[in-house]
Amino acid sequence: MKVGIAQLKSFPGDIELNLENHLRFINEQFARNSDLLLFPELSITGYEPKLAESLAFEINDKRLMKLGAASREKNMTIGIGLPLRQKEGITISILLFYPNGERKVYSKRYLHPDEEHYFIAVKDDSLPIIPEFPISVGICYEIFIDEHIEAANQNEMIYMASVAKFGHNINKALKRLKDVSFKFGSTVLMSNAVGEADGLQCAGQSTAWQKGKVIFQMPRNKEGIIIFDTETGIVTNRIL
After folding, report:
1. pLDDT tier at 157 (50, 70, 90 boundaries)?
2. pLDDT tens across 167-225, in order?
3. Secondary structure of the chain in the HEC alphabet?
């Protein structure tokens, strides 16, 4: 299996442009080598907590149909970041599109205190499962929660983090995920954004680790894709 992470620029609040940018990544010839492609936190809207109420999606929002069609056409599982309107409130979620047409949601269980005014946490113990392969995911602040890390890496081969990290906190995240990869002897992939978000600049540096060692890291300010081959252990990349 080949799993990929995207490092892309989201345009704050511009859903139409962000959707087109996602499709550009998905249609990229290099990306077609992947079975799974994961995007950064809140990638469809940009990381804009203050705009979450006005930008939130329903799970079957018609604007997302192109992503579902692309998943089926490319035979690729696609994980996008978006604010999702649920019964209790708005969540920070990963919406997974499967080639068979199914959609599955993973929502952030642990919020940073700054997010609690705009979002709700979901206290569901389940983690998303990629059929027939042990992959788990986490969203940004969750990487610092020991309970989440223990659950997500229990008998898992790959842990994928979808984040929105800025220049002032990227080094802490990089060290944390390096330590996670070393502790569990696992492959860890982090998908971060570039460009402006919430009035700050995202720090890029999306990274792949194996057993605590960096096997590839994206630059700070370029879009691109990293793909990890679970059978060979080989990582490939393309800067777009």
Report:
1. confident
2. 999 999 999 999 999 999 999 999 999 999 999 999 999 999 999 999 999 999 999 99
3. CEEEEEECECCCCCHHHHHHHHHHHHHCCHHHHCCEEECCCCCCCCCCHHHHHHHCECCCCHHHHHHHHHHHHHCCEEEEEEEEECCCCEEEEEEEECCCCCEEEEECCCCCHHHCCCCCCCCCCCCCCECCECEEEEEHHHHHCHHHHHHHCCCCCEEEEECCCECCCHHHHHHHHHHHHHHHCCEEEEECCEEEECCEEEECCCEEEECCEEEEECCCCCCEEEEEECCCCCEEEEEC
